[in-house]
Amino acid sequence: MRWLVRLAILALIVVAVGLWLTRPRTDAPDLLAGLVPDADNGEQVFHAAGCASCHQPEKATDETRLVLSGGQRFPSPFGTFAAPNISSDPEAGIGGWSALDLWNALHHGTSPEGRHYYPVFPYGSYTRMAPQDVVDLHAFLETLPADPTPNAAHDVPFPFSMRTALGGWKLLFLNDDWVMQGDLSPQLERGRYLVEAMGHCAECHSPRNLLGGLKTGADWMSGAPNPAGRGSFPDLTPPEMSWSESDLVEYFTSGFTPDFDTAGGHMALVVENLAHLPEADRAAIAAYVKALPLD
What we know:
295 residues, 2 domains
């Protein structure tokens, strides 16, 4: 009987250590202490981060794009996820969140209630965002309309419905290291921040492994199948991406390609966001794309 008791104790210790290692992480309030919010910069962060693209209601027009009531649905091999309400409504939305709550959501994928968020919320990229930009984004979100639309439920089957397992996913794939390394120019550093952090471009344009983690190295930004099962996201590395930097800047501004086609689908919403940024930022994104592929 002693070996059974010892085995049970060992199993309990292993489970306890595993739960501790995979617990939802948060940071202390002093991380954001002394940062003064700038809602004007927060508006630029909002557009760069593409918040409206996912959280605006279905078929939103110009007048309703800033009503972030959620509801869009995103099919994937792991289930179908519904974008939540992130309006300033204190009950249905995130109007009751502090800047620290937003930081923990973006940086750790942890809710104010201490639960793991699914990585369909691209905190795998947002984790690289700077504290000041998060504080500024929080200030801007507070200026947007409140909407009482309740959140739609995700349709995620077992075992993916077990959020505890997401802690293990984070241990494997969540880190704030930059993918493009080296001695970068100021323009490339800005482009890297816009692409790898706020713009979360790789979430669509990079392939994933069986567990849903983004592949890096030569696979980074090399295109990926659409998780909804319709078509694919294009390869942004040469020779597939043959556009010049000026072609890319024009595309990010107007949606027109060098072949006189236009951006469609979800990319049209991305262009709407990018068009709000300073031209220097669009040029920085173009410079990053033209610096691909990575070794």
